[in-house]
Structure formats: C-alpha cells, structure tokens
Amino acid sequence: MRYILIMLLVSIVAVLGCTPAANPADDADSKAPEDSELMATDAAKYEVGAWTENWDLALSAAKELKRPVLVNFTGSDWCSWCIKLMNEVFSKDEFHEYAKDNLILLKLDFPRAIAQTEALKTQNNALQKQFGIQGFPTILLMDSDGKEINRTGYQQGGAAAYVKHLQSLLK
Question: What class is the 38-169 domain?
Fold first, then answer.
C-alpha cells in the first residue's frame, strides 16, 4: 500500500511539474501576431537545421522548402521532461542530420527565468491556446499551412529512436 501511495505522489508531482501554471495574461483572446518586432528578432531567412522562435518564419520556410514543421512547446528552464528531450534527442547528431534534411524546427518556449520579448510571449501564448497545449513538452508536426499533422512528446530510446518515431508520424 505504501508503495502505491509513493508512486501516486511521484506521478502527481511529475505531471504538475510539466504543466504550465495559469497566467491571467494568457486569457486574452489573440492570434499569432504578425509583428514586425518579432520578425526583426530572426534573420529574414530561416537557417536550415536551426531552431527558430518565429511562427511566420517557420511556416514560410516550410512552404519554400516543402517540409513539415516540428513545433516544440517547451519549458526549457524548468520542465524536467523538456530538458530530458533536449539532452537525449534534440542536441544529438542523429536528430540534427535528420532535421537538417527533413524538418523546419520551431521552438515555442515558456521559460520561468529566461527573458523574452513581449511579442514572443504573445505569439507563444496565442499558439498555446490555439493548439490546446496542456503540458510540456508537446511536439506538434505541422504542414506549411499551420495544420496539425500529428502530436507527440518525449519518447524513450534516444535520438535514433526518436527520428524513427517522427518518420512514422509523418507517413
């Protein structure tokens, strides 16, 4: 009985640890901004194989390169599963090689201690609401029109296994 109680408590802590806290500013109805300030933070061109934080730039690159967008909804500085996904998959050569040739990478971050511009926060909050993101990490695979193809999250097995997982989701 004690073991079950401990497992239940650990599970609750894990779920709550990767679920975003409610923010009253998130309640404002808004769409992803077409904000020149946000566009100015990125180079005018998407760098193949690199993460961008700009929704419009990612969709534009997806259209130009005819690739899906991998959208990483993350709490990069506080979510343990997000950090694990970054360390085990997104930072590895196997993932980089696959992404460079097959994906557009978009990181939508919800940090607690990393400063962000208001335009970036507004964009990320609007997209979180638009796609019904409840917890982190959530990985969306999108087409170049911003339509969801599939949804996933952390998967065990490392970068090579994750690449195979992504390939199966994109078939």
Answer: alpha beta
